[in-house]
Write a structure and sequence with these properties.
Blueprint lengths: L1 H6 L4 E5 L4 E2 L3 H6 L7 E11 L6 H23 L9 E5 L13 H11 L3 E13 L4 H21 L10 H32 L4 H26 L8 H22 L13
Parallel strand pairs: 3-5
Antiparallel strand pairs: 1-4, 2-5, 3-4
Helix pairs in contact: 3-8, 5-6, 5-8, 6-7, 6-8, 7-8
Length: 272
């Protein structure tokens, strides 16, 4: 990416992944928001191509990206997208900042550095990149652990965003959408399941119901795991299973980041 930007002579640079298919108007839609001089980068939407007979990973990944796209639209409406989709991303060339060679999440770091320069990152779902889902959950697991390791690395390098001046809305979006998801949320889920049995002693009805709900949820996640092992998909259990897998990946990603064992280069994932 750093070398390509040096060779490019246009005002806007566009990046996409090698395994994505773009809609016909993708580039036209990506550059349209640059009519606003406050826009420094524009990201498109990522869509997962899911077949009805697809694997549980396809259904989970497809649902996740619909949710993530909704959050990106909310971020953009509030102030700026925090964390662009590298499958289809564009920048003003003048704002592009060469990334460190060990950067894991290049799209996230580059788009956040654009916001730190005082510009906004716009979201335009009319430009979209389509790709098939990971071949199975084990392939998706590798991606999620890598992204989690990159999340911890990014948070360590973006401490300036935690200061709510001069962009309090950016700080709010970054903490609520990214920092908490990559750090506080998984640890909170773990603490909840550990302390819930103790809290039952103080209010058996309330905390008993909450404990029962947690046991039921993670029971469905385990059921989804066994169904997945058999190559089957269960509509009621694949969401708890995928959700649990994503949050577990945060702990493994943290371990990989602390050990410095996560490579910056992508390991090619098998696709459905």
């Amino acid at each position: 990416m750093n070398r390509a930007v040096l060779e490019a002579d246009g005002e806007i640079v566009v990046f996409c992944d090698a395994n994505t298919l773009l809609n016909r108007d993708a580039i036209r839609e990506l550059v349209a928001p640059y009519a606003d001089p406050h826009i420094g980068a524009v990201t498109g939407e990522k869509r997962i191509l899911v077949q009805n007979s697809g694997h549980v990973s396809s259904a989970g990944e497809g649902l996740y990206w619909k949710y993530e796209s909704w959050l990106k639209q909310l971020d953009s409406d509030l102030y700026s997208v925090v964390g662009a989709a590298g499958e289809l991303m564009s920048y003003r060339k003048s704002l592009y900042e060469p990334l460190e060679p060990d950067t894991i999440l290049d799209d996230f770091m580059q788009s956040m550095r654009v916001t730190l320069k005082g510009y906004k990152v716009a979201y335009n779902p009319k430009a979209y990149a389509m790709e098939t889902a990971s071949a199975d959950v084990s392939e998706e697991w590798k991606r999620k652990v890598r992204i989690s390791a990159g999340g911890w690395q990014s948070m360590s390098r973006l401490r300036r965003v935690l200061i709510p001046w001069p962009n309090p809305l950016l700080t709010y979006s970054y903490i609520s959408h990214r920092a908490f998801r990559w750090s506080a949320a998984p640890f909170s889920l773990l603490i909840l399941i550990l302390i819930n049995p103790i809290l039952v002693c103080y209010n058996p009805l309330l905390y008993g119901l909450i404990l029962a709900g947690q046991v039921m949820f993670y029971g469905l996640a385990i059921h989804g795991y066994w169904k997945d092992k058999k190559g089957e998909k269960n509509t009621f259990s694949f969401v708890p299973y995928y959700f649990t897998m994503m949050n577990l990946a945060v702990f493994f990603g943290l371990a990989r980041y602390l050990k410095g064992s996560q490579k910056a280069t992508w390991e090619r994932a098998k696709r459905a």
